Amino acid sequence: MKLLKRTVKNYILYSTLLLVVSTPLFYIAIRQLFIHEMEEELFHHKANFNHIVKQLETEKEIQLFQLINEEFKLSEAKAWPVSDSVYTYTQYDSLEGINIPFRALRTGIQIQNKNYELIIRESIVGNTRLVTAIVAIQVVLLILMLTGFVLINRKLSHEVWDPFYKILDKLKQYKIDEDTFISLPHSSTTEFRDLSKAVVLLVNKSRDAYLNQKEFTENASHELQTPIAIFRSKLELLIQTTPLTKEQAELISNLLDTTDRIARLNKNLLLLSKIENRQFIATDEVSVLAVLNRTIEDYQQLAFTREINITVDVAKDLVIKANPILFEILISNLISNALRYATFKTDVLIKIEKETLTVLNNGSPLKSPEKIFNRFNQESRSSQGSGLGLAILKKICEVESFSINYYYSNSRHHFQVCFSANS
Amino acid sequence: MKVLIVEDERELAKSIVQYLRQESYVCEVAYSAQQATEKIVLHDYDCILLDINLPDGNGLTVLEALKIDGKADGVIIISARNSLDDKIKGLNLGADDYLVKPFHLSELGARISAVIRRKRFGGNNLLTLHELIIDLLGKVVSVNETLVDLTRKEYDLLLFLVSNKNRVVSKNAIAEHLSGDVAEVFDNFDFIYAHMKNLKKKLTEAGCADYIKTIYGLGYKFEV
């Protein structure tokens, strides 16, 4: 929920509550005030009438006065004295077709020694009308207030919250492996200045940690190269010694194999961190088919020993822009992976369709295919692999902005690289 | 033949010296760029192995000094950094080859003998071992003046063994040598056995003595 929406929502709730509570209060207060005023008015009329009635002398004059002044109603008193009483009653108005409420004062009066009962009445505003008017006014007020509030808030959020949104945008765009530093807009608001400072501090710290780790991986791999070289060279000298028994030869052979694995692992780690460090930047036009054919030739012997047939299904060659070294590694890793995990005596199929390259190989499904591109993922790792081949694949695709997908169907593993994002 | 090894890692330098001595190379070692520069001025070498990460500076300065002197020594750069920039820079400065650590000694041996052959004999280069003659330029092999039809891999394999003759070459080194730069090597040496079987068969059928000895499951040795 947006900041503005959240504030407005609370505000609407509060206003509605206020409206509901205040409407009856208003109604009672206003009505009370009305009735009070009305009574004063009635008694005032009575005093007026007393004054006027002294001028009236004949019965006829009295009747005439009554005709002119409808609010007075004079009738002969049935009992005497008549005490003053104020009451409310309704009368049907045939003209308007509604019941009209009246406030009336009943009192006794003597004209020319005759006892009369006098009723003075005033129509009062109807309850429904009053409530309707009050609610209408309140609603209009509420709408005006809310619109004003939203408008003011929007303006404020544009002005006051502007630095906040800018910081947010910058943070969203920031990539730890790309940008060197994060620069945030200056704000005159203390809170946002503090936020900027905190964000910059945090980002810089993370960046340092990230760079340190990256540097460490690369340095560690580099530093390992020499000891591995020494170790391997000593083993190679050892096999020159005589006499060399079969037992010793087997042990040394195992050691050489292990050294190969260490060397390969280290080489791949180094490659991965080099790709991450964007050390392969130069791009060139690369023919996918040419690289494919070269790589397949490199692996033909291996495919042959495993009785795997590599089939290439290409209607038209694809020329893309990429770093040639990275692209060769990409193709090589795709094919070596397919060969490594393909069932013996099956086909590895390579297809180029439009902008995509798909490599298919037979095999049993994976338990957690979503982890396939993770480093050192146990499931997709054999004793031969370094556990980094697919991670390197993924990284290359990231750097070259290709998209890579893995899926399993028809008991075949599919690796699909789409180059279109790049071209 | 004289080889100068410029390498600050003493143990690695020692291994290289020990390996090359078996092929009757005369080896000298320099542990720093300064030592190397001094030696270059005083002596001529057939081949210089140059580590470019030296304690007293970049090994490429040694290469520059060599170029200024106008010396025709063959240079192989050995580096722990598989950096394309360094490679291009080194080759532009006149280095003949570039080898990345950790390398196999037999790979180094093959590279050294290739460099020396190029420097010494120029283009016309025949390698003769009794009845076996390898034409390095035409990349053809003949036994008793009869051509032996070898595949590219079989030829590479033979040359690799001959370049390291009288020393055991591990199957691991052969696998790495035969697989391209990019190809990931598998712990599967079946393809070497297949190549080796074919090579031996072709050579013996042509009347060549069986020089290639199998050293248990470990590797091979070309004995003359």
Description of the molecule:
The complex is a heterodimer of chains A (423) and B (224). Chain A is an alpha+beta fold. Chain A has helices spanning 3-53, 59-68, 127-159, 162-173, 190-238, 246-276, 288-305, 324-341, 389-399; strands at residues 72-76, 85-93, 98-111, 114-123, 284-287, 309-314, 319-322, 347-353, 356-362, 403-409, 412-418. Chain A has 3 domains: 3-149, no CATH class; 178-279, Helix Hairpins, CATH 1.10.287; 284-418, Histidine kinase-like ATPase, C-terminal domain (Heat Shock Protein 90). Helices cover 55% and strands 19% of the residues of chain A. In chain A, a hairpin with a 4-residue loop joins strand 2 and strand 3 (98-111). Chain A is rod-shaped, with a radius of gyration of 48 Å. The relative contact order of chain B is 0.11. Chain B is α/β, with parallel strands linked by helices and 224 residues long. Chain B is built from 8 helices and 14 strands. In chain B, helix 2 (33-42) runs parallel beside helix 3, helix 5 (105-121) crosses helix 6 (152-163) and helix 6 crosses helix 8 (190-205). At the A-B interface, helix 5, helix 6, helix 7 and helix 8 of A face helix 1, helix 7 and helix 8 of B.
